[in-house]
Amino acid sequence: MARRPYFDETKAEQAVRFFRALKHTKGRWAGVPFNLQPFQERQIRELYGRRNADGSRQYRTAYIEIPRKNGKSEMAAGHALKLLAADSERGPEVYGAAFTREQAGIVYRVAAGMVKQAPFLQSRLKIIDSTKRIVNPKMDGFYWAIPAEAAQAHGFNPNGYIFDEFHVQRTRDLHDALSTGTGARESPLGYYITTAGYDRTSICWEMHQYAEQVISGAIDDPTLYAEIWSAPPEADWTDEDVWKTCNPGLGIYRDIGEMRRMCKQAQQVPAVENTFRRLYLDQWVQQSTRWISMDTWGANAGRVVAESGLVGRGFYGFLDLSSVSDLTAWVMLFPHEKDPEKVDIVARFWCPVARLTDPMNQYRSQYQEWQRRGFLEVTKKAAVDYGFVKQRVVEDSVKFGLRRMNIDRLFQGAQLGMELTDELGEDRVFAMGMGFMSFAAPMKEFERRLLGRKLNHQGNPILAWMADNVAVKQDPAGNLKPDKASSQGKIDGIVGIVGAIDAQMRHEDVPEFKVVVV
After folding, report:
1. Taking a C-beta distance cutoff of 8 angstroms, is the pair 320, 496 a contact?
2. Where do the domains of the chain lie, and which CATH numbers do they carry?
3. In terms of DSSP bridges, do strands 328-335 and 6-7 run parallel, antiparallel, or are they unpaired?
4. Which strands sit side by side in the sheet containing 160-164, from one edge to the other?
5. What is the pTM for the complete model shown?
6. What is the pLDDT of residues 95-116, one digit of tens each?
């Protein structure tokens, strides 16, 4: 009589004991034995105890979707070491895969740290940091951290692979190369661990949907083990009871106090809501979202400051040049002496006079009103007069005391930036990129200061309009940048504030500003 699939209690217990012999490597848990939580032990027992009739592992793929800070890196590293040092396969090849080499290095460093703290592994494994490898000489095997570009070097023969933050994978190439390379192995295991993403055309979304159908029973796939720790879309994301349903490590690995602080911020800054829901509740969200709560913006309207009182005070600036026929924004931040994070904001806006009556300009009535009230200055030419803009920037720099300014390094900004550098000095004018790398830090600083009521915009109506317009785009790491394509109108002034904050954050003491007139 043929044997049926079964559960091997001995192998399940051996796997659990292996994990418990490991130690944590980070923070307050560093050096503490891996005291498995019930959800972790259940996963380990299922993956290593559930067997086919021939004795091979039933599960060939594990898809684990879970919010951050629930011990996922430690679990991934534990599986990598189990497959490398305590599995039945000869010549084990285990790959730690991620989109970037840096991301792949996260699980590698945890695994290496575990080896260093485990005498029973130190005697069997060799760590090679230069290539991010852990070698098992006796079994002629290795663990190797690899990025997405390694997919082009086919020839993989893995008995195991770990995909960290799978939602970041932009193509399916590495997934295909690894998953199809396991054919010669008796009991391979592909372990995918990730938080939710936002790209619903990605390979991760494809696997997410498939896993949901396996979990619900709509698809019968006994080779896939799936866990999705996600709050329901309709759930109240501010409810702590909801948090507990999708964060099995809450109060253990994740601090509830930190989660409460992030939730409070998310209720005041709309863009942070998406970050909170995706990274803390594992909900798939949109990439672009409205950024600024107008109640919070309004709370930052401090006293109106006369420009005569700003002379010589010193400021940080950002110049956001428009296309040839629209708004140009010049934003200056004047730090308070006792609290440099608190700033008075002076924003100047210019546009060609033709835009005030252009039937193609849907905002022309607003432009006319802003000009009447003195918030928008028009230039006589049909297109943006960059010579005029340069003159005004130089005048303000001399009058108020420029410390540092940023300028968009693309398009017209490149030429005007060089001219301003000649006028003001190369230690004052800097080109700024418009990508996530440039904006991540000042965007967070903008949010922090906005919530702290440190951005006195003096009730400028153009800035208020732009604050209400601005949408942001989020990268997989949760970094933000302004998204002009998704915003409902112009946002140049808000980009200017963020860019000027960047200038202030990067500023190093330079000599007092002086201009020699020849």
Report:
1. yes
2. 6-228 (3.40.50.300), 240-285 (no CATH), 295-506 (3.30.420.240)
3. unpaired
4. 126-128, 133-136, 141-146, 93-97, 160-164, 189-194, 61-65, 224-228
5. 0.70
6. 999 999 899 999 999 999 999 9
